[in-house]
Structure formats: structure tokens, C-alpha cells
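Moderator note: this is an archived Q&A kept for reference. The question asked for a predicted structure of one protein chain; the sequence and the answer are reproduced below.
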Amino acid sequence: MLDRLYASDGQTLGELCGHLEMTRQSVTQHLGVLEEAQLVTVRWRGREKLHFINPVPLQGVYARWIRKFERPRLEALHDLKRSLEGDGS
């Protein structure tokens, strides 16, 4: 669902249902969980409820958790590159 919103932010429930192999009720429940987790925000346009990704909490997860696991991998790749190029410095 987040991938669908990333591809086209600001979709209605109907638009999301059209791209997902889930019942409308399941999509509604998932959106509720995402809204509660503040990963999705909503904005009303008349009678339409538009759903948008909220990148702020995602950035927080990245900064707090994912980035920790990237550093060792990047250092290993750097060391491998230096080793393969014969640069001992």
C-alpha cells in the first residue's frame, strides 16, 4: 500500500482498492493501522478522503535503525575495493 502511495500520492480508497488484490474492507483496515502509526496522513477534498505518505516517521526509522546496519556494509565494500585495487593505504 505504501508503494502504491509512493507511486501516486494522494489516492482515494477507491483508487487504492483498484490496484490492490484486497477487499475494500481490508484496505480500509490497513489504512487505519497506517494512519494510527502516522505513516499515512489524510486530507479531505470535498467528500473525498485522500491518503498521503507521511515521510517523517519513515525517516526516523531509517535514522534510528536502518542506518546502523549500512555503515558496516559500506565499510566492508570500501575495504574490498581497496584490497582489489591493491591500495594498502
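Archived answer notes: The first helix runs from residue 2 to 7.
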